[in-house]
Predict the structure.
Amino acid sequence: MALDNESQNQKRNFKVVGTRVQRPDGIDKVTGKARFGADMSAPGMLVGRVLRSPHAHAQIKSIDTSEAEALAGVRAVVTRADFAVIEDDEFTADTLDNCMAGEKALYDGHAVAAVAASSTAIAKKALKLIKVDYEVLPNVTDVDAAMALDAPVLHEGRANETVPAGMSSNVVARHEFGHGDIEAGLAQADRVLERTYRTAATHQGYIEPHACLATMGPDGQADLWCCTQGHYFVRDLCAAILGMKQGQLRVTASEIGGGFGGKTTVFLEPVALALSKKSGRPVKMVMSRSEVLRASGPTASSSIDVRIGMTKDGKITAGFAELRYQGGAYPGSPVEFGAMSAFAPYDLEHVKTVGWDVVSNRPRQAAYRAPGAPMAAYAVESAVDELAKGFGLDPLEVRLKNAAREGTKASYGPTFPAIGLEATLQAAKDHPHWAAPLGENQGRGVACGFWFNFGGNTCVSMSITPDGTVTVSEGNPDIGGSRASMSMMAAEELGISYDRVRTIIADTGSLGMNDVTDGSRVTFAVGLATIKAARAAKAEMCKRAAQVWGIDEDAVIWEDGAAKPAGPNAGEFPPMSLAEIAAIASNTGGPISGHHEVNAEGAGVSFATHMVDTETDPETGAVKILRYTVFQDAGKAVHPDYVEGQFQGGAVQGIGWALNEEYVYGDDGVLQNPIFLDYRVPVASDLPMIDTVILEIPNPGHPYGVRGVGETSIVPPLAAVANAVSESAGVRMTELPMSPPKVLAAMKSK
Amino acid sequence: MVQVKIWGSLAAATDDQTTVEIKAETLRELLDGLGKKYPAIQPQLDRGVSVAIDGWIYNDSWFTPIKPDSEVVLLARLKGG
Amino acid sequence: MSKVHVSTTINGDPVEYLCEADETLLDVLRDRIGLTGSKEGCGTGDCGACSVTVGGRLVCSCLMLGAEAEGQEVETIEGMADGENLHPLQQKFIDHAALQCGICTPGLLVAAKSLLENNPDPTEEEARYWLAGNLCRCTGYDKIIRAVMDAAQEMRGAS
């Protein structure tokens, strides 16, 4: 499809869009009735459990499952030997290897076998009876250590053609972006700042552990219920791993208890299907929290060198960053997005970024909200802040002076169309927060962030019931209220009230393929398809009315929820409402529905500016968040409550990343903090209210001007908090998380 | 002919040029033309790319028209969370 | 190992079950009674998604044995609404969009109800500390705290 450029006829006077209606799944979720991944059961169901490697890196010499198989109540045991060899598709082969280890266990928690048994107690007992003979190998979990020539090697031959010869085999890809001449640009600066920044790996931290229920019959037909951000992708991946045809596997998405990118792949699902096939029984699998932390995808840890030149009046003359991300045991860290987005908020003549994708003995990274961007923004925004403050300049003014705007050649290549960065900066500058006084040991930080957003494959089917209500079927799991937004856009377009529309998430058998709920795509792309489906239904209803009136269908228009003659020349007929047309559908040609299938392109990029006040305790190094304000462009906020919710949630995940969250490994490569007590995400008492300012700079690529908002909000907070803490602690912090011992040590060393 | 900007790490595949010329009127012709003219870039095309045309990002749609004066930038295939 | 016979009261209903001696109350509720509204987010008492009250006291049902419910009064999220009438907290959570994914919502509601029973007029700080044992990863807590404070005010006005 060509870009749906509707800027000339974008709808502006909204009746439903922009209001704060109640979500359709609200009552189920406040009464405990909503069914999440682990809430489903089936007759004759078995319990599936996974045996995991206690070693970070080990050759699997043999696995003896005979005693486990002989245990009463055990119905199936699977190891890698139960899966076919996958050739010619590295991504699928890696995904299988991550779900069930092959020749080597590559990280602490890597699955090596699984059982299905009649009870949890028997399944646990069976795991203890499986004998795995490991040859323990040296491990590496740090990104810089993994790049060293003498580092333990995970795989040979996985580097792609972009990696120069002579590097460690753990370096698997190199990405370079930019334009201009860095050295020439730096030469124009009054000061060149060079710093190295490090960020720890953090986990998406969804409260719902991965869970699924699989049923597979001897004829190869299978059903899968699971919590996922993309059940079509789960279908396609499982089919590829198990050698099934996609049409044989129907996947139904449960309610999803958070994902943030972490539920965009499979972990348990192919294993549950294999166990079900072997046992002939439904198999339910649910991860424990420690399994989630040890074996599902956190994001990458990073080590980033930055060189930025600035004149004394605040002009950035050149920016360079070299980014090293370890993405766990397989290629695919999001370093290219870090390298592409690092300098995106700035209009730079000379800019260059180099990204290195590195493997290490950690769980395979999964996408985490604007994957790769927060760490890069942390490094660049920290350096810009330090330079600005070093010259005694206002950090917001410096950002405004250098801000990317329409016509700016972006650091990653293209020229920006209309974007909202300046608007967020201006709103920040004009906000009372910026002028509010600070006390002792307090500091204020600001930072900008960018994310691409995208569209993708999307299907919506809309059926008009005989009594004139509307059901919207879509294929993207609702992770934060999107069913409400779809119902709102359908109601808006049809000219009916919100309470006459209900949106459901269809299973994979009911609609064409839908891309995963990611890339901040749902409100944009599914919304676009919903509007187009409604337009198709309206066209059909106009046709039916024209038929009843005996006039040409081109002479009928749709207005305020009813078909009307286009003008006096078309004839004198009273409007025929949606309900009236629906009631006679059987007499005018049959049931009425509208549908739209599209690969949506034209998602607008998104920018945000965050502002935060912190107080640092000089005795303990503990940091308190005093005040926080998010300024972000939403294009058009369909449901402002849930737009604010995305802003607030992303900001707080970023605060956790900045202050407390980290994967802690010992020399043995074993994760030392795989429970929520030690992997400390922000709690209610850590935080103030998170204020939000929604800006609406319409996206010309969407009929209502909508832009995705879900991811950008996690990009600025790492740097915003670091800039505030650096001020409140009186020392520049260059490593995340800024946990109390680190802050205290930095304060003592100044 | 369309001017296509290639990102830095792919320049090794295009004789060190970061801008190349391809005869193309659609996205499909562009991607086919790139692979034919510069076979060394094919592995990246197989891994996946996105293409920014006049500032808007496209992933797959073969028949997206490209004008001779369009700004065309090859990008790593975008993924999200 | 033989199972333990337990007689208890759940949401006002007399209930009997057999459970393993080492089985948690959460597993009993979810797997034996079919009350899946209480969620397991961690199994270690750190996330609060499994919050219930036992004898009026707020507990993590993942940290209590099913056998310990003998003779007790257990209240779960499924008992919070009165027929088709939502509890004010439930309504305020919907009104304030205090949930995104909703997995933490049952535990937060049970904990918030317990807060308001113990302290009908909490300050924002008191509410934040009482609910600090209930993790929410989606919302940043802002709208949750607003919903709780609003419900508290409404309930004070009604009593």
Summary: The two ends of chain C are 50 Å apart (CA to CA). The helical segments of chain C are 25-33, 88-95, 105-118, 124-130, 142-158.
